[in-house]
Design brief:
- The complex is a heterodimer of chains A (about 110) and B (about 575).
- Chain A contains four helices and one strand, in the order αααβα.
- By secondary structure, chain A is mainly alpha-helical.
- Chain A is flat and about 60 Å long.
- The termini of chain A are far apart.
- The radius of gyration of chain B is 31 Å and the shape is elongated.
- Chain B is mostly helical.
- Chain B contains 20 helices and three strands.
- The longest helix of chain B has about 45 residues.
- The chains are: A mainly alpha (about 110), B mainly alpha (about 575).
- Strand 1 of chain A pairs antiparallel with strand 3 of chain B.
């Protein structure tokens, strides 16, 4: 996952800029990110939460709910995309375009 | 006290006219001063009905002020100022003039005390927003503008039918909460919901807005849907159906934004998503929920304009708007990136940004009412907002794979407009006390509790984790996603083509038939009817008498038939 990430985030070497493009930068970012994630969950141990609903009382409910609902939304969107996605010139080559007039003529 | 009650909308209309006729050197000054003058006028208005007249025997309340109306009018005017600043040097004067007239319509609706005034300004907005779409200047913009205009004119007609029903059946044109127990009220609701981009016509928004110019889209994002939100608060607070319509809009926006490739269309879908939160809040209908809807509309106008300014700046500098063509712009557009990120964090309701202190009012209201399912869905949707607008937009535009583009940050006025709104997002987020007193009802809510901050950070950061884990699933593709408009952009056209072809075939058949009949009957026709034909000849009188007698006998026989045994 993280190696895939690095590929995506790295500009071609020609960019030659410091910052995100630097080798290893993305790895560091991932480590920091995971540390922050762990911190927000760990904070539940010290912070007194005010759950209102049954599910909310579960440990790390918000973390799990945020993660799972987003995964579900992405999967659902992609499933819908199977049926609804079209090439992006779809509308510009529909019969409403002016060149259709010529086709209609014959 | 006529000078006190001068309608603030008229200042903007006057300004729009002035922009059109002024010398080019004066235009920037007018563009910047007119919203400030309007803002001054708005805040001088005391509460209550301030300017009345008669129209068709109905009392027209041209200006009615109050906390809620002032809040929306302020947001619209501030938006006009920032939009004007953003397009000061880049937008054509026709566009700025149309945009200011459009803003005037929104301010007019805000202060409309009766349904007739509201309707007039409503249509005013439809007219000038169409012009703003057309100012995109491309063939795609022209076509999108026509579709947009048709949608809004149809919506306007629906609204008008409803208003007339209410006028006739209740005898009152006052703007007050309507019960959804009459047909009229449902029709008014439908008319308002068209402008709120509610299902099934949500797609007019993502169809038209991204085709406008960089400045035009910024203006368009603010007025139409938010005046609809205001109208819903005034007319249908607590209508339960709005909870479900709102939730549908929330998830519709997320789903379509996740599939979208055009950066400004992603943000357009997220307008539907955000308006969904507000509509849901209005449906919940408690004081806290209505406060939340109003507050969220206010801050949404600011951060959505900020997001679209940052997208507009990218488009202005690169000429590109598809995520597949962009990426890695953080190298050379650090300010645009930073402002875009602040907008993205605000829309995601990150702590210390404006969205955090307003969106939570709505979900808190759902929680207080014990609406567990609604609360769970709103919470999931908050995570989804971070997914599609909070990360997807900045990630694919400013980071991700390097597109090799190195455009600089945009001109100073665009940068200034972005900085202004970015500062507003942070300021309102850090000091909710600035916003809460402006809300229609007293606020008894503290957003910054340790519990709220921790749960919100968990929710959002784990949504972020989901984004990066699922990144391969979110690969940008050169696609569009079909929507309800497919029915009238494709199916209806196909049906029309089929009908037209069938018609042409029918005409051709009839022509053939006439030709064939002509070939067969022609000679006979000539035999009978032409000057030398049989019917044209003079006949002997005896022959005629004979035939008259025959007919007479037949008639007599037929007439006597019933009496015969």
């Amino acid at each position: 996952m993280s190696s895939d990430e690095r590929q995506h985030a790295q500009p071609p070497p020609a960019a030659g800029r410091p910052g995100l493009g630097r080798p290893g930068a993305v790895r560091v970012l991932w480590i920091v990110f995971i540390a922050v994630l762990a911190l927000t969950v760990a904070a539940e141990l010290v912070v007194h939460l005010h759950p209102r609903f049954r599910l909310e009382r579960w440990f790390a409910f918000n973390a799990a709910w945020g993660f799972l609902s987003c995964v579900a939304m992405v999967l659902f969107a992609n499933l819908l995309g199977v049926f609804l996605r079209r090439p992006d010139d779809y509308y510009s080559r529909r019969p409403e375009t002016p060149d259709d007039g010529e086709r209609r003529g014959d | 006290m006529i000078e006190l009650a001068f309608p603030p909308a008229f200042i903007l209309i006057f300004g729009a006219l002035l922009i059109a006729v002024a010398r080019p050197a004066l235009r920037p000054v007018i563009v910047l001063l007119v919203p400030l003058a309007t803002l001054w006028a708005i805040w001088r208005l005391p509460d209550g009905v301030l300017l009345t007249t008669q129209f068709l025997g109905y009392p027209i309340e041209l200006v009615e002020s109050g906390k809620l109306r002032r809040l929306f009018a302020t947001a619209f005017t501030v938006m006009a100022f920032a939009g004007g600043l953003f397009g000061l040097k880049q937008a054509r004067w026709t566009e700025l003039s149309a945009a200011y007239a459009y803003a005037a319509g929104a301010v007019g609706v805000s202060f409309a005390g009766d349904l007739i005034t509201m309707f007039l300004f409503w249509e005013f907005m439809a007219l000038f927003s169409t012009l703003v779409v057309w100012c995109g200047g491309t063939e795609a913009a022209r076509r999108a503008g026509v579709r947009y205009a048709i949608m809004h004119l149809v919506g306007g007609v629906i609204l008008k039918i409803g208003i007339e029903g209410v006028m006739i059946h209740t005898g009152s044109i006052d703007i007050r909460p309507l019960d959804l127990d009459t047909f009229d009220a449902w029709v008014v609701l439908a008319g308002v919901l068209v402008n709120a981009a509610a299902p099934p016509v949500s797609q007019w928004l993502s169809d038209a807005y991204p085709e406008a110019s960089p400045t035009g889209t910024v203006f368009l994002s603010a007025f139409t849907t938010k005046t609809a939100v205001l109208a819903l608060i005034l007319l249908f607070p607590g209508a339960e159906v709005l909870v479900w319509i709102g939730l549908y809009m929330v998830f519709y926006g997320i789903t379509y934004a996740l599939l979208e490739n055009d950066m400004r269309r992603i943000l357009a879908y997220s307008i539907v998503n955000q308006v969904g939160f507000m509509v849901c809040g209005i449906g919940i209908g408690t004081q806290m929920a209505l406060n939340g809807a109003a507050a969220h509309a206010f801050v949404h106008i600011i951060y959505k304009a900020l997001l679209l300014m940052s997208a507009g700046a990218v488009m202005y500098q690169t000429g590109r708007r598809k995520c597949t063509d962009l990426g890695g712009l953080y190298h050379s557009m650090p300010l645009t990136m930073t402002c875009g990120m602040i907008g993205a964090l605000s829309i995601s309701a990150f702590p210390l940004t404006s969205g955090f202190v307003t969106k939570s009012l709505i979900s808190e209201a759902a929680g207080q009412q014990g609406l567990e399912v609604v609360w769970m869905l709103l919470t999931a949707a908050s995570a989804g907002v971070f997914l599609h607008a909070g990360i997807k937009f900045p990630w694919f535009v400013f980071f991700h794979r390097d597109s090799g583009l190195r455009p600089p940050d945009p001109p100073w006025n665009m940068r200034a407009a972005m900085l202004l709104f970015a500062a507003a997002c942070i300021l309102l987020g850090c000091f909710p006390g600035l916003l809460y007193p402006l809300l229609p009802f007293p606020v008894d809510y503290v957003p910054y509790t340790a519990s709220h901050v921790v749960t919100q950070l968990q929710l959002l950061l784990f949504a972020g984790l989901a984004f990066f884990v699922m990144l391969s699933q979110m690969e940008r593709m050169l696609t569009v996603t079909l929507d309800f408009d497919w029915f009238y952009r494709v199916l209806l056209v196909r049906v029309a083509v089929v009908v037209e072809r069938a018609w042409h075939r029918l005409i051709a058949r009839l022509r053939d038939l006439r030709r064939d009949l002509g070939a067969v009957l022609g000679p006979r026709f000539e035999d009978w009817f032409l000057p030398q034909g049989r019917l044209a000849q003079t006949w002997p009188t005896g022959s005629m008498t004979l035939w008259v007698t025959v007919i007479l006998v037949l008639l007599v026989v037929l007439a006597q038939r019933d009496t015969l045994p």
